[in-house]
Amino acid sequence: MNCISLFGPRVIQKISCYFVVARKLSDGCFGGNKGDNGHEFIEEPLKRIWRSSDFDLVLDEKQNVHEYENRPREYFSLRRSFFENAKIHTRRVLEVLQQDGPGFDTKAALDELHIEVSGLLVREVLFKILKQVNYASKMRCAKLGYKFFVWSGQLENYRHTANTYHLMMKIFAECEEFKAMWRLVDEMIEKGYPTTAQTFNILIRTCGEAGLAKKVVERFIKSKTFNYRPFKHSYNAILHSLVVVKQYKLIEWVYQQMLADGHCTDILTYNVLMYAKYRLGKLDQFHRLLEEMGRSGFAPDFHTYNILLHVLGKGDKPLAALNLLNHMKEVGFNPSVLHFTTLIDGLSRAGNLDACKYFFDEMIKHECFPDVVCYTVMISGYIVAGELEKAQGVFDEMIPNGQLPNVFTYNAMIRGLCMAGKFEEACSMLKDMESRGCNPNFTVYSTLVSYLRNAGKRAKAHEVITHMVEKGQYTHLLSKFKGYRRC
Predict the structure, then answer these.
(1) Contact 271, 303 (CB under 8 A)
(2) Most buried of 2, 113, 412, 465, CB within 10 angstroms?
(3) Which secondary structure element, helix H or strand E, spans residue 195, and what is its range?
(4) pLDDT tens-digit profile of 181-227?
(5) Helix and strand tally (H, E) in the chain?
(6) Which of 168, 176, 133, 135 is nearest to 151 (CA)?
(7) With contact defined as beta carbons under 8 Å apart, do 261 and 235 qualify?
């Protein structure tokens, strides 16, 4: 069933042949600090190895599946009522918290609500507060969130979970209350809660920007309360988190610590380390790791192939990529939509749109049908190359083929139309996306407004901004549109 278990060093040697030429690729193709350059197609699948902040809850739900199946219909009615009540109580709690200020006893007002506090209610309230955080409100959000957190934690029939601690930590992090966040971590440990990969994720995201990432890693390596499941060991949990926050140099250091501590490398370790070497532009070391992986008896997995295809795509090596795809099929590992998308994205960034079209057609020929992301990659490639007509052709194929354009697809098309001076069509496309239930994000509005202004169409740009404001969207970002004044 697991065909990759049949792979061995010979397979790796064969794959390595495709990469001999890659050693000679220019640094410009492998610079680690030149923007994302399409790396999301590698990072996102790696992130999804484990990304749920409610991992424990997911396990609990799986354990209770059979129990749920045998429940009477009345049970589900009660559950629906429970969720509806939680929403109502969340709204009431937030109304009380908004009144907080001098002379107002928030704790007494919350007590007077006489509501039953549950884990769902606490998470809903904290999540709503987290969503409200911005530059102007961060001090107040931190204060209100913590007041509610302390109040609910003191109730007799309720006990915080690791997840509610994590939510409160996120609020502190967003509000830049770093000392308070660390105090919460210490409190969490003192009360017997395990620190998990999610705890580490929150801390490393925050402290990575503050230059304290290495100290956070050292603390978690030494921690005896670090619950690193579902990973094999704590080092893999840490390495995975460092990929998420793009701490590639730190990945190298952690790997050396892992070896010194006597831990064995597995396929996840190799994938993370190879990707880090690639992002740092260390292609020779990338190649050596691939060979070492084969000698150690590890077969390429889904993520390994994804990394390799992206390297070949960015290096404009379509023939080597084709050989690798054929090899995958030979060993029973059929390339997925993501594999093709990763390759097409890399090739489009290398400027080889003919190869992009070839692989796009090949995947359809082999009944691997493109999704909205793959279509968007093709469209974006054509737009960047100034091939608006071809981009429009791909766009027009989407809906008949069952793929609705998303906000990124529309943004690419609007940008392309503006670049071609077709401003009426660009504005029409904005209306079209709204009519299809696809709400524009701020980037879409910003793209259209910027091009309209640069073309001297300031009145039309003003109309677009006014339309955005009337819809009640992104009003907190209005200052980014210089010169705009509300009537």
Answers:
(1) yes
(2) 412
(3) strand 195-196
(4) 999 999 999 999 988 888 998 998 888 766 788 888 888 888 877 88
(5) 26, 2
(6) 168
(7) yes
Q: Which of 72, 86, 160, 148 is nearest to 116 (CA)?
A: 86
Contacts of residue 278, defined as CB under 8 A and 6 or more positions apart, other chains included, come to 30, 32, 286, 307, 311
3-state secondary structure of 351: coil
Question: 56: how many CB neighbours lie within 10 A of its CB?
Answer: 17
The SS3 call for residue 105 is coil
Residues 372-398: pLDDT tens digits? 999 999 999 999 999 999 999 999 999
- Structure tokens that stand for 396 in this block: 């027009």
Is residue 129 within 8 Å of residue 171, measured between CB atoms? yes
Cross-strand bridge partners of residue 196 = 227
- Torsion (CA) 338, 343, 348, 349 in degrees, nearest 10: 100
- Using only C-alpha atoms, the chain has a radius of gyration, in whole angstroms, of 26
For residue 77, give Cα distances in angstroms to 64, 69, 70, 120.
18, 14, 14, 17
